[in-house]
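Record 1 of the preview.
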Amino acid sequence: MERRIWRPCGLLLCCLLTLLAPPVHAADEAPALPQVGEFPPPLLGNNRQGERVDLQERRGRIVVVTFWASWCGPCMRELPMLAQLQKVVGKDALEVIAVNWGEPRADVVAFARRNNKLDLEYVLDGKGETAARYGVRAVPRMLVLDREGRIASIHVGYSVDALPGFMEEIVALLPDEVRNRPASNAPSP
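->
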């Protein structure tokens, strides 16, 4: 009979403790992830030369920030496309920053050397801290920033079928003088 008395009392005690505990909100656990129309966290980390990469220093041009990894097949198809787009538009108007997600520095440097025709700014994120601030849970994940530095769009994954729409989106963000110049006249930095 004592067991019956203790069970309801134990249950009542657990309920009271739950009610008295401070509430835990998801917003308390993690910072809000950057959304379209907002300014993303400006510091991406260091490039492979050890220099800090700050998005605020790139205002005035379209910036594509893509999170990638060398083991990601879609990433390996996306990076050459982005490098070619940057080349055609001109780095003065469009810059691609490729943030490596979770791989050692030596692996990223080796990848960049093997793929030296891809004129991209590589940022190291070996611990995934930058990716976490941007809400990256899978790659590729790409953010397109307008000339003011606000997020114009966020793309998850890679699809050849989505390329025409992506290209139209980039062209629409470019100023008229860049949009109307011949690709061969795009100045290099």
